[in-house]
Amino acid sequence: MRRVQPMMDGLEQRCVMSATTVAQPLAQVVSATESNGVFSNNDQKFAYSTPEGTRVAITIKGRGSLEGTFVDSAGALNLRYGRTNSYTKITSDVHGGTGRALLATIYSHDQAASGTTNSLSGIGSPLIGMINLRKFDLIPNGTVNVTAGIGTLGLRSAGPNSQIQLRDLPVQTTTTTTTSGNTTTTTTTTTSGSLSTTSNNINNSVVSNVFLVQTLAGSDGEFVSAGNLLLQSTNGNPGPPPAPPGVVVAIDHVNGDAPAPDLLNDVRIFGYDPVAGQVVRFQLNLQTDTGVVDTAFAPIKVAGAPADVGVALGRDNQRQVLLVDSGTTVSVYDATYGTALGSFSVPAGFSDVGSTDSVTVIGNTTANQLQMLDVAASLAAGTVVQPVGNPASYTPPSGLSLLGGLTGLPGSNQVYTSVAAPFNSLQPLENQLGYLNVSTTTSVPLENGSLSLLYGFSTVQQKAFTQGGNYVAIPAGNPNQTAVSVGSVDRSLAVNTVGTNSSGAAVPNTVQLYGQVSLTSRGPIVINYPNQLTDLSESFRPDLAGTVLIDIQGNVQSVRGTDANGLVLNNAGNLNLVSFRRMSNSTIIGEPVTHINIQKRTNVSIFSTARTVGSRNGVTVVPGLQEVGPLSQPHDRPQA
Questions:
Q1: Reported pTM
Q2: In what order do the strands lie in the sheet with 360-364?
């Protein structure tokens, strides 16, 4: 006997089906500005059909909008989200056809609109609680960039050369458990709104406006591993402890097509040799703190062998490139293969160069100025083209003079430059060494609750550098070329010096690493090369190509899946759990790694800072391991 329950038939929700679109309420259908899809519910729903006939509906629940979302010519989804907060969820309904859909990119609308899709800082983008696309396959070369903050990400698979870059949600949660008789009650309180939260010594500033939109307004600091998060049940409560904080990532199949590199012995950096008049690439070993010439890369000759040449990494759209600045011309090369990609002219004297994830900055010590440029647009024009908005040039605060050392750090929207100034008040007529941190972007709130991310210089910090408690004098003209050769290794400033060995003999190319905020020493890396290098670039890892990269800033609750090949999982924070049935040709870094549950593994390397269980379960403990990355795919290729 069938039991039925009477219910009201919602006539206003009846839909007309078509061959190319998912059914939508007639009164709510709005034509999409992009191809093959329709928006509805005030841009909170996006529906389309794939070329295979699969019907897809993407829905945003809670605060937020899917404005800017589109489907490309290959039928792959390019998801955009905006005006969200840490409670917002994006879900999907995939049915019919193959039962699966392709995913090309995920960015915040603000990031995509401002042209900062390469940025890993997350600044200017909103937080989001969940993006659940469990029937979507991230295509080869696909990108998921949610570096403002996310709670949960779900995908079906990820293809080769793809990258997933995330940050944990900067929220403060307090859990209280009370027991009365046989009844246990757990109350969880989450504090949000205007927050300034600290995770592993990284300060994340989150602002919340009247629209309840939560946006990452700033992130800075020097990562310090907090050690394992040991969670314990309340006394007298036999139940399990609460889940640890952090991002939850679920990807059934990780399909890289290249073995994952050893991230501690795969670091590359460029340096300029003025004696030979050439740019040389070096390979660094972060475990032995040494560097050698990378013989796989042919040195690049600089015409005329000028004494003052700047080198830096940059981005030509997504492709990672080497920039060689002779003071009148910037020559551009593929960073992995050395393929010449062209050049563009720069104003005379602008021979210093450094890059953030998304913009390049050149400097002139004589004019005491910094200027931004867009690499791709400058290459096309043959001369310097500034980013959107034509940001004004930057002059340091009064009394500060640029020394020529200029670099960027991954995951930061700031450039870092060496300066001379009378920092010592007891010697006001003499200059001492210091470092100046300069932001390259600013956020402007809009009436709809979102932000507009704009390019523009602003001073963040000016700080004296001391050695053994003593200031470092900079005579007029800097005849010793102090702090002129500056680059970066991951999130550390790298200053090339002449060191000494145990016998007191000079050791050229002793690269000193420093924290970018505190300027505290992180030790040296000695590059085995006879001629003193007069400039260094930012570091990168070309051997990531072909892998599936998952890079997470902050704590991770779990990364789960069925099988993984060619996975690079890099976590600057507590990596609580990695759980797969099968894994091969993969590298995992956690700071620290807490639990590993991989039932069958082949050629899997796992590195961790100090952990309570030492090297158990095949984990290599690396004492003093500094933050690795944030990492991104180089998107290099041998051809022009």
A1: 0.89
A2: 352-355, 360-364, 369-373
